[in-house]
Amino acid sequence: MNVLWLQSGGCGGCTLSWLGSSQGSLFRLLADEGIELLWHPSVSEAGVDEARELIERCADGRQRVDVLCIEGSLLRGPQGTGGFHRFGGGAQPMIEWVKQIAARAGHVVAVGSCSAWGGITAAGVNPTDACGMQYDGEVAGGLLGPDFHDPGGLPVINVAGCPPHPDWITETLAALAHGSLDAAKLDDLGRPRFYADQLVHHGCPRNEYYEFKASAEKASDQGCLMENLGCKGTQAHADCNQRLWNGEGSCLRGGFACIRCTDPGFEEPGHAFEVTPKVAGIPIGLPADMPKAWFIALAALSKSATPARVRENARADHLVSAPSVKRGKR
Q1: Where in the sequence is the domain holding 13, given as residue range(s)?
Q2: pLDDT tens digits, one per residue of 200-222
Q3: Beta strands, E only, the chain
Q4: Are residues 208 and 270 in the same domain?
Q5: If 236 and its partner were Cys, which of 49, 197, 260, 317 is the partner (CB 3.0–4.6 Å)?
Q6: Residue 329, domain member (yes or no)
């Protein structure tokens, strides 16, 4: 299976994440799965002239493209011309190359939230008129339109994340190479369910604090970050705290709140990322599957039962009180 990887309006962080896989050499991994990179802007030896000639062959059908990967949002401005982004200084806008190749490709993969929804590049007044491949924020459409499907009947496959975990990218490509990724294995937003059916909350190292609603009050505290510091891990679809980065890291393990970067619109939450907006003292963003009344009742009960150890540790920057040793009959 061959893959053509093009980069549009983005920072290149998705590629950096992919290259940082803890599974070993990326090229060995791809070779093991029968995947060949036709061209990638960061890792291929071909210069711009050779790359442009290859892209032309892909666009007119002389070169078969099994999977088209797009990293970065698609820049439609100014006024729908796409003139803000022309590959290698050429005459044709990048969005036209993408449309032509997508129409011929076996599958289309949006790598990262910029390519999936528009992401950071589309935030604010969006002067470049940036969008995703098949979404413009939360609205279906984007560059290719809501009705786009590849020859196998799949929509654009959105490997969303800012950036996505390297294994999400590789495993998606491997599933395509082996013909095992069908529509049933994508969620309602076109994300592969092998990671999107999880919540960032699953496996969070602060879960004990969450259970007792023992909340951090400042960034260095060990407590749950949901109530006061903007964490959306109970709503974010990803397995970040089960499939760790480099075998040991995640945003929450680094002390940072989850900003729900795999979802459309994450870049403009309507408030500062490190703040939890509330109404009558109740966080607006509640766990994905929990009615508000249940949350209020559970929170009150949990706080009343919070062990002193948990309460003390939640508002400290290190372990203050260790769990007691309880000896019982065997």
Answers
A1: 2-195
A2: 999 999 999 999 999 999 999 99
A3: 2-7, 36-39, 67-71, 74-75, 107-111, 130-131, 135-136, 139-140, 157-159, 278-279, 282-283
A4: yes
A5: 260
A6: no
